[in-house]
Every structure is written in C-alpha cells, then in structure tokens.
Amino acid sequence: MKNFKNILFRELNFIKEETSLFALIILAPFFFAFFYSTVYSAKVETNIKIAIVDNDNTETSRNFTRYLEAHQQLSIYSNQLDFYEAKELIKKDKIPAFLFIDKGFEKDLKQRKSTNIPLFLNNTRFLTSNDINKAVNETAAYFGAGIKLKYFESNKFNPEQSLAQIEPIKIDMRSLYNFTESYGDFIIPGLLALIIQQTLLIGISLTFTKEIEEKKINEFISNSLLNTVLQKSFIYLIFFGILAFFFYTVLFSLFKINNNGNYFALSVIAILHLTASISFGIFISTFLKRKIAVLQFYAFTSLPFFLASGYSWPKTTIPDFINWIMYLIPSTSFLESFIGITQKGQGLEVNLTAVGIMLFLSLIYFPIGFYRLRKLTSPLNSWD
Q: Does the predicted model carry a pTM greater than 0.85?
C-alpha cells in the first residue's frame, strides 16, 4: 500500500507538472463531452426552411403549401418565387430545398389523375435532405389521402370503406429503439465512448513514454517493474472508471439520452474496455520515442478508429480485412456491445463475443507491452 500511495502521489504530481497531460486527462474529456453533447442536443431538426415555386397558384396548391407549413420539420421560406430564384437560393445556401408545383396541379387532381411535384434538394447535407424528403412525402401522402377520402365519400362510401380504398395495405411502423429517430441519441453515446478511450490512450501512453524518454521509470520501482506498471495502470482505471460512470449516468440524464441498459452488464463491458485500452496504450507507448509522437499518433488515428468501427457506417459495407483489423482496437467490440446494452437492454449473455475479444486484447497487449517496457528500461537498452 505504501508503494501504491507513493506511485499515486507521484502520478498526480506528474500530471500536474505536465501541462499537456493535465489538459488531456482532466480538462479535455469534460470539455469535449459537453461540447459534442450540446452540439447535438437538439437531436431532431425542426422548422427546416424550404421554398415553394407555385406556378399553379390555385386554392388546391395553396392548401398543399399550408399542409407543408404545418409539418413540424418544415417551414416555408417563400411561395412567391420563380424556378431560377429558388435555384439561386439553394446555390447561396439560403435554403436546402424547394418544391416546384407546375400548372395543372389542381386540374389533374380534380380529374383524378396523378400529378408530379419535383423536389429539388441540396444533397451536400444528406441528413437534412433525408429529413426534408421524408417530411414532404409524409405531407403529400396525407394530402392525397384527404382528396381520395372526399371522392369516395361523395360516391356514397362510408368512412371505413373509404379508408380501405385509400390504403388497402397499411404499414404500421413501430420503432423498437430510438423512438424519436433522433440523430443525437444515435451519435452522442458513441462520441462519449470514443472520448473516454482516446483520452485514456493518450494519457497512459504519454505517461509511460515520458518516463522512458526522460529515463525516470527506475526512480520509483521499489518492488518490481510489474508491480509499478500494474499500480500505475490501476490509477488510470479508477479515474477513467469514475469518468465513464459520470458520462453514462449524469450526461445521459442531462442530455436526455435514452438508456434501457442493464447497469451490471454496462459496468462489466466498461471496465473491460478500460482495461483493454490501458493495455493497448502501454503497448503503443513502447513504440513511440517522444511525447510529441504520442500526440501525433492518436491525432492521426482517432477519426479512423471511429469511422472504421462500424458505428457510423454498416460493417457489411466495409471491406472484410478492415473489419478484422479494427477488432484489434478496443472500441470496436465495446461500441457493438455498448449500443446493444444501452439502447436494446441486452445482457452480458448476448455480448459474450465482445467480452471475449476485449479480454483477449488485454491478455495480448499487456504482456507484450510489459515485455517491451522491461527491455526498454534495462540499462542495456535505450531509445537512442
């Protein structure tokens, strides 16, 4: 215990004196967690401005415009534009889309003909485009159903018969998870997990690289290198365990992120993720000669780690060799089980593969990292 206390206070002083380490371990996790969560706090886009080019200018076309205005995701920028004015507004990023209602819109509907309304979208912002496309199609379907309903009722059909004629097959879609179809509820949990992993990796790699670079690691080895490495690792496990608990409880509650999770299962995979990340960080630190190299390595790999993990893009569309390589990174298995537990309420029994992979990574990276660390701290070895 005395040796552990010495290492603890030495590590705290180490972090306090090393400005970059203090900023990355203490300040960065909270800053990025609150920043990203605040950016996506709206979760669902509302009142997206679109323009209407109404060349028909009839009561029916104006009613359709009012239906669009009533949709919670849409707001009408203007309905007094011509085609070229609306196109120029998209080019200048004033609006993301416009609808073109051509002459004959009302006439075709009264004659029970189908009519085509082109929707011009700025697809450089695909999330917004998808929301607009969905909202416009929902409005058109609702508006069209109202017209059909009036027609069938005018032909002596009762309301039930009229509805059956309008929708002989009706899809009753029910979301099992992420009920609001919120992008924020999807992306924020993954970002929080990545923040914990990357700050932990940078912190553990920096502390060991600095020890070796400045040849200080032998100063505090009273029992053995193994005890020292384990105790230093345990300090980071405790700190980032507390951080993970704060993220997955307080921040989830603060930003109203749905959590159907089994907390025992979540705690187990969170600890395994931290343990695997610490082992990976020690392993990586033995290959990086300078502290700046640590920062450069993780700055370069942070985005690829996230994008290739299968969290933001389906694994089935990623080449198999990349998928296999990504399983060497602790966050890949963790994110798979993390979403299953927090969003679907899964237990550990469903995530045994992810548990096994994270255990395997810890048992592989730590011994290899320790072996290299022992060789590098030997008087017969040096970085130079």
A: no
